[in-house]
């Protein structure tokens, strides 16, 4: 589906944030499916009458089965500055995840070392550093329960591939629908119950606080947790 005004969560002369649907890929991959960055380029080209396309830089990524806030840069200057913001960990990322197993502790910090197998697109966690591993850290807290499902808010300090998915699974709480990391069955929609809820940072050009928020998907299940 093409990007429309309804999908735009934030926009100024430098940045644009849209609501990513579960199943969208952020950038081109081996599937050949049209990526989200191309969809946003088309949206901007039409909106601002730029027949030769518009510049769009990918600032960060979300896994294909994940929904929520995704941010792009509209200028090369903004891309460079936002890359620095993410590299220096000057952005607060908040995710919501639904799990079936109640966490043993209502809140905590998880630290692991991850190694990714690019051929299988699977990440393996370790409790101590091993050769070739990357350190990852997140904090979490249990914020709600509904019909035997538990809602967890996650604040990752690092931004490793599949980090939240594999760390929650290692804790004994695989994300609903994420059969790659321990949930008994996958979703027929190709989605998992992990949502990029909020991005907060200081605008790299305006030097003003930016707080971008995405509502939960309206899929008959997720939106039941909206008011937690």
TrEMBL record:
Signal peptide: none annotated. Keywords: Isomerase. It comes from the Bacteria. Residues 14-169 form the Pseudouridine synthase RsuA/RluA-like domain. InterPro entries: PsdUridine_synth_cat_dom_sf, PsdUridine_synth_RluA-like_CS, PsdUridine_synth_RsuA/RluA, RluA_PseudoU_synthase. Belongs to the pseudouridine synthase RluA family. This is RluA family pseudouridine synthase.
């Amino acid at each position: 589906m093409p990007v429309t005004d309804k999908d735009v969560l934030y926009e100024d002369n430098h940045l644009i944030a849209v609501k990513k649907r579960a199943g969208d890929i952020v950038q081109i991959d081996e599937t050949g499916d049209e990526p989200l960055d191309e969809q946003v380029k088309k949206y901007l080209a039409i909106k601002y009458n730029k027949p030769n396309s518009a510049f769009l830089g990918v600032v960060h990524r979300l896994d294909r089965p994940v929904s929520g806030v995704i941010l792009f840069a509209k200028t090369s200057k903004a891309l460079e500055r936002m890359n620095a913001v993410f590299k220096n960990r000057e952005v607060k990322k908040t995710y919501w995840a639904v799990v079936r197993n109640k966490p043993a502790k209502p809140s905590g910090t998880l630290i692991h070392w991850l190694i990714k197998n690019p051929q299988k697109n699977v990440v393996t966690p370790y409790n101590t550093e091993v050769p070739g591993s990357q350190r990852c850290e997140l904090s979490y807290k249990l914020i709600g329960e509904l019909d035997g499902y538990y809602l967890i808010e996650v604040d990752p300090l690092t931004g490793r591939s599949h980090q939240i998915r594999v760390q929650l699974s290692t804790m004994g709480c695989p994300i609903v629908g994420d059969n790659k990391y321990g949930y008994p069955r996958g979703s027929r929609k190709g989605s998992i119950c992990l949502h990029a809820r909020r991005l907060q940072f200081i605008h790299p050009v305006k030097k003003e606080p930016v707080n971008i928020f995405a509502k939960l998907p309206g899929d008959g299940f997720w939106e039941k947790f909206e008011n937690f």
